[in-house]
Amino acid sequence: MTTTTNATKVPAAVVDSPISARARISGRIVSGVIAVLLTVDAVSKIAGVESVKQASAELGIPAHLTPVIGIVLLACLGLYLFSATAVLGAVLLTGYFGGAVLINMINEKPLFSTVLSGVYAGIIVWVGLYLRDSRVRALVPFGTR
Questions:
Q1: What are the structural domain ranges in the chain?
Q2: How many CB atoms lie within 10 A of CB 36?
């Protein structure tokens, strides 16, 4: 009787190139900073802070959806901070930021200071993940020899 196994192959780049302690710590710091900022944003939406309600109304977002948006942001952030689901969290946060870019474009906000702020946040999320996660490094091999 012959048995076959379907072993999952791990890319050599993941196995052969461990992340330095300095890069891992830097990644955690970058991820931590963006996480704090996004947590404050999410909590202010959930808590119904008046200035957040007004800003959302000016963008055309109904007041009853603001807490839902905050909960979605917290869920995506939780996935991003847990290492096993960090890539999924980063992808979902990227989609969230894309929605922010769209809303600001529709409302004709200033390009570099407002519209692209979602792009800037997305870059920070991915840089933090790249520095701390070998799976992302294997996909995007900057600086390989």
A1: 20-138
A2: 10
CA distance 20 to 81: 19
Report helix, strand or coil for 58: helix
pLDDT at 22 over 60: yes
Q: Which DSSP state fits 4?
A: -
Query: In the structure encoding, which two tokens stand for residue 110, read together?
Result: 């200033």
pLDDT above 50: residue 14? no
DSSP 63: G
For residue 72, the model assigns a pLDDT of 98
User: ∠ at Cα 13 (144, 96), nearest 5°?
Assistant: 90
Going from the C-alpha of 67 to that of each of 75, 102, 107, 114, 137, the distances in angstroms are 12, 19, 21, 21, 35
C-beta of residue 103 within 8 angstroms of C-beta of residue 57: no
pLDDT (tens digit per residue) in 105-140: 999 999 999 999 999 999 999 999 999 999 999 898
